[in-house]
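Risk mitigation, structural track. In case the binding assays with adenosine monophosphate fail to produce interpretable data, a predicted complex structure has been prepared as a fallback.
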Amino acid sequence: MTDWPSLIRDIPDFPKPGIVFKDITPVLADADGFAAAIATMAAPWHAAPPAAFVGIEARGFIFAAALAQALHTGFVPVRKPGKLPARTQVHDYALEYGSDRLEIHADALPAGARVVLVDDVLATGGTLRAALALCRRIGCDVVGASVLVELQALDGRAAWGADVPLHAALRG
Ligand code: AMP
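Fallback model:
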């Protein structure tokens, strides 16, 4: 299998000084690398695929949509404010400085639908926790979460808690 982790590159001081940004675009640009990364992310969900993978804007869309195709499930977007056209549920959450908001279509899935949350990078875990709260608010059964890369130093896994399985294709 292609060594897709070696395709991820560190970009220092982006988007601001002190942040080391994990640039996953070279993985996407490599046909074998992209396929291998998706195969790794899909593996935990083969046995019991969810009704949908829920992708978090923007890079989460890429992985969630590819997983949905790989496992023949639906795809549902969680978006930044003001982007979704129909009625939404919103969730506000605190950032280190300030706050942010995510939205999901209120009727995106029937109540009780099993979903897996997807993003590219797990850092502090705030984004994934916000998506968890949103999906629960529309009645979904969140059975797991999948990220391509977990930044272990930031301890997002501890903040995530233990009741919903969290799978990281790469821990670094
Ligand atoms: P957090 O809410 O702190 O877990 O941050 C996760 C979100 O921010 C994800 O949507 C990531 O795409 C993005 N993110 C945070 N830190 C990084 C990083 N070092 N490199 C790339 N993306 C990041």
